[in-house]
Amino acid sequence: MHRPTTTKRKRDRDDTKILYPAPLVLPGDELAIDPRYPPQSVRAWQREKDRNTVTPQRNVIYIAVVDEDAETVSSWTHPNLPRQQRQPSRNSTSTLSSSPPAIEDIISYLSAFYHPLPVKSCPIPLTFTHWEDTPDTRKARPGSRRQGKHKAMPSVAIRTDASKTKIRARSRSPDDLFPFQLDLNDLIDVAIDILPSNAYALLLLVSHDLYEDDEDIFACGRAYGGSRAAVISTARYNPALDDKQSVDRIHAWPASHCIDYISKTPCENESKDPNCKTLLPKSHPLHLALSCHLDQIPSLSLVWLIRAALTSAHELGHCFGLDHCVYYACCMQGSASLAEDIRQPPYLCPVCEEKVLLATGADKQGRMRRLVDVAGKWGWGGLEGWCRRILEVEERGNSEGGREG
Fold first, then answer.
1. Spatial distance between the Cα atoms of 235 and 249, rounded to a whole number of angstroms
2. Which pLDDT value is given to residue 282?
3. pTM assigned to the model
4. Which of 167, 268, 359, 378 has the fewest CB atoms within 10 Å distance of its CB?
């Protein structure tokens, strides 16, 4: 028995690649605004000088959260909505109230997404506390975007066992959805400061609304890839805010590929009993993903968790040196809005996946199986269906390749 030829292996890879759809680009989306965004090939990624490599001494992904001892700070996470509107109702797919994502679930997802690297809760305890306003004498970290232009506001700090760091805040988000916002740049600095010695990267997960620049309405996340640190906020992903933010929850991935939705014709998928359809054959992974999704519409709590998990994976992708993707519909696409966020897929395209496999040392099928397991446990039919079909294609290709000659 001979090993598969290079030509055969290349044909198998190409057969798999045609299963991945092109980026979904609607008016106002990132690629519609910047269609000339430069692609990052695998070779360009490998040649990136500032890319950090995984080593046996530095291979753990840490997830950090901040305990909210300060009562005032805790209240800042509540959106400015009438009490009766704090749980979503329009197009709701569940009568249950939604709950914010739990760190254990985020760790579970990222452990599969970045398999086989260990993903752990950060061992350094972090606590929000009050800050007595004094002149801020800290020197800006090289590359930090502290500008000192914000008005004096009630200040908070993040305390560890060894230090206490001021986190600037501003009153009311410009769209009036949250009473206060925290400065993302200060949170990034905290993430960099607490990076354990064996960490490949650290993700700081917060439930407060964020801003990055004075002109921002809000910011959901940011990664400083070279520093191996990222921050995301789950605040804007609350399904209770979807109507206010013009987010079409019904057409989140994979229903974003509904042919009626894309063509802007009236879609039958406008109720609790959606009926989206695609023009793809039934054997296509996206067709199966959509079918599984419609058979098992996610609860509102799962919707919130999925959104946080996808952004967590995306921002950590930047820590691995991945740029925004322009090749296919992909978890690493750039996004210009929350509405575009939820239309993008949870999977990595073949180009970005190859980068992650090279960085982590994982095999594709082993990684896919773990994603199937997590999606199945969550009841995330769309991702489970997609990964199962991709696995079938991969395993069939390997079997046929092994019989060549």
1. 16
2. 81
3. 0.86
4. 268
